[in-house]
Write a structure and sequence with these properties.
Layout lengths: L4 H4 L5 H18 L5 E6 L8 H10 L2 E3 L2 H9 L23 E2 L2 H4 L5 E7 L2
Antiparallel strand pairs: 1-4, 2-4, 3-4
Helix pairs in contact: 2-3
Length: 121
């Protein structure tokens, strides 16, 4: 855990992180067999590294986006309030979705993002 990292980043750093995250997710999806599930997890709250990366993977096809908030709720044995992401995966507007975003002020964690993708082909 490196909580100080957020203070060492510059806005210009973001331009290289989205493509890197896309490559990492594509590699993970290529490595898992059909029917396997990849958990895409970041400690970033920025849509360019979270919902945008997942949206692009889903648009490329051969993956199904699973309901991550439901999995978190089941694992916690009680609802985890406020895990819906700040933006909708499809539109980029405010709203919920099938991904989960955890926040320091709401969940007592770092700003963690979770998406679960099942390879379908």
């Amino acid at each position: 855990r490196r909580p100080e990292a957020r203070w060492r980043r510059q806005p210009s750093d973001l331009s290289g992180l989205g493509p890197l995250q896309r490559d990492l997710l594509a590699s993970a999806l290529a490595a898992v067999r059909v029917g396997g599930v990849v958990a895409y997890v970041t400690c970033s709250p920025h849509p360019a590294e979270t919902v945008a990366v997942v949206r692009d993977a889903v648009r490329r096809g051969a993956v199904e986006l699973l309901d991550a908030p439901a999995v978190l709720d089941a694992a916690a044995l009680s609802p985890v309030p406020g895990t819906a992401p700040p933006v909708d995966e499809g539109t980029g507007r405010d709203g919920g979705g099938r991904t989960a975003q955890l926040w320091p002020h709401a969940h007592g964690t770092d700003a963690m993002f979770l998406a679960l993708l099942r390879r379908t082909a």
